[in-house]
TrEMBL record:
The UniProt record lists the keyword Signal: no
Domain HAMP stretches: 331-384
Record-linked Pfam families: HAMP (PF00672), MCP-like_PDC_1 (PF22673), SpoIIE (PF07228)
Keyword Hydrolase assigned: yes
GO biological process, one term: signal transduction
Name under which the protein is recorded: Protein serine/threonine phosphatase with Cache sensor
The entry's keywords: Hydrolase, Membrane, Transmembrane, Transmembrane helix
PROSITE patterns for the chain: HAMP
GO cellular component: membrane
Amino acid sequence: MKRYPIAFKLTFLILSCALVIVAAIVAYNYVSSRAIILRQAEDNSRLLVAGTAGRIDSVLSGVQKVAENVAFSLEDATLTKQEILDLNRRVLANNPEIYGMAIAFEPYFLQHDKLYFAPYHYRSGGRIGFTMLGDAKYRYFYMDWYQIPKELGRSAWTEPYFDEGGGGVPMATYSVPFYRTVDGRAVFAGVVTADISLSWLQQLVGSVRLYDSGYAFLLSRHGTFITHPDKALVMNQTIFSLAEERGSNELRELGQRMLSGEAAFTPVGTLLAPTESYMFNDRLKYAGWSLGVVFPRDEMLADVFRLSRSMVVIGAVGFVLLVLVTVGIARRITHPLRELSASAREIASGNLDLMLPDKRANDEVGDLADSFKYMKTSLKEFIHDLTATTAAKERIESELRIAREIQMGILPKLFPAFPDRREFEVFASIEPAKEVGGDLYDFFFVDETHFCFLVGDVSGKGVPAAFFMAVTKTLLKVVSERGLDPGEILTRVNADLSSENESCMFVTLFLAILDIETGETRYANAGHNPPIFLPCGGEPELVPPLGEPVAGIMEGMRYSTRTMTFKPGDLLFVYTDGVTEAMNPDSELFGEERLTRLLAGESEPFAPKLVKDVGAAIHDFARGAEQSDDITMLAMQFMGKCTP
């Protein structure tokens, strides 16, 4: 069969040049008109978003000011319990935009015999309802609206949530911490909250319309849908969980751009609507929420389409006679190309299961058909493998990165930790073996003269150990601040950890409380490595182990308290087994003996330098070998004139 090239066939289609000219005119008209319509749509949507955001921000701003004023009033320690209740109710009654208000005090702060004191007034059926928050099922001081302002030391909006302990409606809460002066220093006393019901917000955003089927939606600062025409998404999904559900990287990237706070007019395809659409988004001034307005491309460009169709019709009339003469040849030559072109568009839109037309022509069209078949098969395999691999990798990396940031964020890491304290020097470091680990350390003042410091090592590695570590640290902090002996602290923490511990995880702990005036140190040890004591001018020595088991396994276990006395210049080095069990490429352990020699060689021991020197020695010893366990160190030095 004789082969004819496409160039030879196209010589019979000279008349198509005229069609190209008409098509160019129509295309130019379409592109120009489309650009004008897009600019107008962007301006309209910008004004619409700005107006809606302004209305929302005005309400949020008023709510913030009310809550901050109440928090300022509560710094007056002379207010009685009844006056606090009256203040809360009166403020709510005078501010209709607020759904509910709570004044939540720290446990045992207002009433020394009461764990809970958190009056909550809210609107219910045209009147003001009242409840007292706090019971065994609703420990408000563990809630986000309480913990976030307490830990950050500043006001904050919570993520939208459905509150079952107070109003029983979907809401967002603005929390303001307040403080009172105790013994000449400001002490955290509690949190004032102002709740806004999301119902009015959903109605306001739901009323926004652009073109016939356009709509608006609102995201929280973490991407949760606050409002959306699809009620199933509201308060149930984030834009990232929706992207994961659909397997859409484009939707995930769109959510990241929206939460970045940058105002943008963006084509979003079919990510947010059944048809091709555009979106304008901007960030609210308050609360960190993001507002987006979606409108369909077809409705926006309807006039452009109509004009283009009219021009096509006009041009087609002029070509009717020419088409009648050349239609037979043109159809025979271009029909295979049109079929392949249509198939290519289907493949480009994602339809990789399309059956390609069977072309037997021995020319470039046949070669092109074979190439399309090969391309379709290769693309299908590649996209399937890439989608599965990328989704799994991104999900795991994202979760581990967030877990590591959360874990490292709860450990104190600013040194010097107490620059105004000259009585002691404390320094600590942690290096997880994986993205997240199970080691922990902490230090804090129990009262004005007693300083608590601790080191622990949770069994296992990875995310489970990190969760158990976070629970342990929280329990230790809460129990230690009650002024108990170290042994009693570990006894109570063990009771909480071992209760219903189906995973059988455990933690080794060394906890000590130093009297910074006398140097007397009380300590307890739950199966942890014996610390090393460096007396000023003397040789290192191990603190004798107490022989008591790890925490979290045996219920009813009681831990004892021992006492030692620091002299000025004395230093206690506490570490986890990741230090002594560090391994080099020759499978040799760093060892307790090597650690003791290293500490004995310190000419002038100083807590920060000591920890850094040990860390550097471990790094040099490992010589690049993979770290097998978390490495955590804490050095506590009682300061003063060193007298050998």
